[in-house]
Design goal:
It contains 13 helices and no strands. The chain has helices at about 5-30, 35-50, 55-60, 75-100, 105-125, 130-150, 160-185, 190-215, 225-250, 255-260, 265-275, 280-315, 330. Helix content is about 75%, strand content about 0%. With about 325 residues, it is mainly alpha-helical. The longest helix is centred in the C-terminal third of the chain and has 34 residues, at about 280-315. The two termini are about 20 Å apart.
Length: about 325
């Protein structure tokens, strides 16, 4: 897959993830379903949808030759289990952070710490580094995120909530770095299969917590509305979004991918204003504009660096973009 297509996949995944908050808000209004039970049903529904499309996918891939060196079974199992556990930690700790310290602080700490942890991890494990341009774009994106989420009133910082948010960011960083590392080694596996099995691991991990919380809603004014919202949550911000995310993160440098995914709160903010009737504030406008500008600049720099690497590979020349871990075009605008 080309870097440009990988970036597109990440953008679509981020926008889709942003709709999950609106769907969850509507579900909470229509029933007493809790956040852990909702995550459990997201995984179960995502698995069902992915398996339903399995026969169609198998027919479309018959002409594709098998890889010369298939991934060893033990390594594949370890990768899938690690991805599923990281995914479960990411979501569950985030919900706990939001419950403990509020949505604004929980979101800023989780999504703000994620790119930092990923940048450090990618530098230490894969030699990928932020150049001056990439560091400036990442800083701009984090500033926009802070303005977007903390621009309102009533933000409360509680130590336990911050610790849970950092734990969530660690899970997010782990699955991003693992996906990128496997993609670089050429043994990242099929994103479709990875997503399906990771959802299975997540569902098993969340089942005891969901049972304790209440896995089925006890009250629902409109059961059909609840089913429709659950189906949407399983289909778009879960099955589709995670499959695109795993595919894109395998070919885009790790820290770049994490900053691009900050488009998620922008999508959530726009939906909240347009569909849920929330008030449009100056902080929403400024934060959205700054964050989008930074993400766009970083994505353009990543695409240019990848294009330079392809040209260098075609001519046999050595350029900074062609050397793993070197800065991209213009001083390393990627991660």
């Amino acid at each position: 897959m080309s870097t440009g297509r990988g970036l597109l996949f990440l953008v679509v995944a981020g926008v889709a993830w942003g709709t999950a908050g609106a769907a969850a808000a509507l579900l909470y209004r229509a029933s007493d379903l809790g956040p852990i039970a909702l995550s459990f049903w997201r995984y179960v529904g995502g698995i069902a949808l992915l398996l339903a499309f399995l026969p169609l996918r198998s027919r479309s891939r018959r002409a594709v030759p098998a890889p010369a060196a298939p991934e060893p079974r033990r390594r594949r199992v370890a990768r899938i289990v690690a991805t599923g556990l990281g995914l479960t930690l990411f979501q569950t700790a985030y919900f706990g952070a939001v419950q403990e310290t509020g949505l604004a602080v929980g979101t800023v700490v989780t999504l703000g710490a994620g790119p930092v942890l990923i940048a450090v991890g990618a530098r230490l494990t894969m030699g990928e580094r932020l150049g001056r341009g990439g560091a400036a774009a990442a800083a701009g994106a984090l500033a926009g995120l802070a303005v977007l989420c903390l621009g309102g009133d009533g933000a409360t910082v509680r130590p336990l909530g911050v610790l849970l948010a950092l734990l969530s960011a660690s899970g997010y960083a782990a699955i991003t770095l693992l996906t990128r590392w496997m993609g670089r080694s050429g043994s990242g596996g099929d994103p479709y299969a990875t997503t399906t099995w990771a959802f299975g691991v997540g569902a098993v991990c969340l089942l005891p917590l969901a049972l304790a919380e209440g896995v089925l809603p006890q009250t629902a004014a409109d059961p059909l509305r609840v089913l429709v919202l659950l189906a949407y949550t399983a289909a778009v911000p879960t099955a589709l979004a995670y499959a695109l995310y795993f595919a894109g993160a395998a070919v885009v440098r790790a820290a770049t991918a994490s900053v691009v995914m900050l488009i998620e709160p922008v999508s959530a903010a726009v939906i909240a204003v347009v569909l849920l009737g929330e008030r449009l504030t100056a902080a929403t406008v400024v934060g959205t504009a700054v964050l989008l500008a930074a993400v766009t600049g970083l994505a353009v720099a990543e695409a240019r660096a990848a294009s330079g690497a392809r040209r260098a590979a075609g001519t046999g020349a050595t350029s900074p973009a062609a050397v793993p871990g070197a800065g991209g075009a213009g001083g390393g605008a990627g991660a």
